[in-house]
Amino acid sequence: MASKIFHPISFIILIFILLAPICHANRSIPSAKNSSPFDFIKSLKGCHKGNNTKEIHELKSYLEKFGYLNYSNKTHATDDDFDDTMESAIKTYQKNFHIKPSGIIDDETISKMTAPRCGVPDIVDGTNYMQPRDNRHESSSSNIHIVSHYSFFQGNPKWTKTHLTYRFVPNYPTNAIPPVVSAFQKWDAATHFSFSQVPTNQFSDLVIGFFRGNHQDGAPFDGRGGTLAHAFAPTDGRFHYDADELWSVGPAPGYFHLETVAVHEIGHLLGLGHSSVNGAIMFPSIEAGQTKNLHPDDIEGIRVLYASRSEDHRFRLIIIFVVTGSRFLRDTVLGRLRSACHVFILVVDRTMNWDIVGSILKGPVQLYRVQLEPIDF
Ligand SMILES: [Zn+2]
Ligand SMILES: [Zn+2]
């Protein structure tokens, strides 16, 4: 009998209970029927251009929140007229979510719009980053033609270093740390980035925490359901979970998977916007109980965003031949180059003390060791 205490289901329930006091106020039994801030959209079924229904102004604010609408005349933003601008916004939304762009609020549109999602907009300043543009995301080989749908933030903000530190805000639930650590490891394994955790009271590039409602960053959360989390573009570094959601460490029906959402939000921290590829981690919405992993579309996005590092004012590659020379000269040269280069290739003789070189070049520098054999003349 005692062995049943450690049944996997018991373990998952235990984790929910541990998370519950911090991650959400009510321990209600999760249900797909729980109300969501997006549920009002269901009452707009069948609406199309020319309609005037009282919830339309709410849908306008939904579309504005995620970047699909931006009225220059603000009175139209709060009225209930389903006008041309709104029809155009609905069609754009439908294209992004692979729905026939009818401009009508049909069942499929309602299903997509009411799905829980990330709070980061899909469109910024009128640029729809979820659609391919200028063919610059297209690649082809002899008989394969691939169109990628990853996106970046306005102006392609990115990090100029490859090692990033992260910390959790004070009172962050300890059992919600491993899923985030694991999410960082996934990005670490798939990209040129590496990450390390620092204590709560130290400076870090990235900061992770749970917040609820209006938490003073211009992007208030909306209670249970609706928006689940958000993160800011480089080099802001903030990643917030909505504390009002039901979160779980392991996948479970009715609960949102902490690690999956973390992998998505870290994508934003690194500079990715939303992708229209359903299987991509950067797709904007996710169902309760769903788990996802990095997709080639996500990894390609990071590769392309950071491939243009040679445009930086810093050198990308420096080849140094250090064969002889005093230790002082060598250390001074390496120390200065350390802050100016992304990659070193050192060609050295056998007398090089690697401990010294390693201590000088530590940090966001990749060190390739090439040891030459002495040449006999
Ligand atoms: Zn997102
Ligand atoms: Zn926030």
From TrEMBL:
Position of sequence motif Cysteine switch: 116-147
Binding site for Ca(2+) 2: D205
Needed co-factor(s): Ca(2+); Zn(2+)
Keyword ATP-binding among record annotations: no
Signal peptide annotation: 1-25
Residues noted as binding Zn(2+) 2 in the record, renumbered to the chain: C118, H264, H268, H274, M282
An annotated GO cellular component: extracellular matrix
Stored SMART domains: ZnMc (SM00235)
Sites where the protein binds Ca(2+) 3: D222, G223, D242, E245
One example GO MF annotation: metalloendopeptidase activity
Residues binding Zn(2+) 1, per UniProt: H215, D217, H230, H240
Top-rank taxon: Eukaryota
Domain Peptidase metallopeptidase: 155-308
SUPFAM superfamilies per record: Metalloproteases ('zincins'), catalytic domain (SSF55486), PGBD-like (SSF47090)
InterPro entries cross-referenced by the UniProt entry: M10A_MMP, MetalloPept_cat_dom_sf, Pept_M10_metallopeptidase, Pept_M10A, Pept_M10A_Zn_BS, Peptidase_Metallo, Peptidoglycan-bd-like, PGBD-like_sf
Keyword annotations from UniProtKB, A to Z: Calcium, Glycoprotein, Hydrolase, Metal-binding, Metalloprotease, Protease, Signal, Zinc, Zymogen
Gene Ontology biological-process annotations: collagen catabolic process; extracellular matrix organization; proteolysis
Positions annotated to bind Ca(2+) 1: E245
Cofactor note text: Can bind about 5 Ca(2+) ions per subunit. Binds 2 Zn(2+) ions per subunit.
Annotated family: Belongs to the peptidase M10A family. Matrix metalloproteinases (MMPs) subfamily.
Protein name: Peptidase metallopeptidase domain-containing protein
UniProt organism field: Salvia splendens (Scarlet sage)
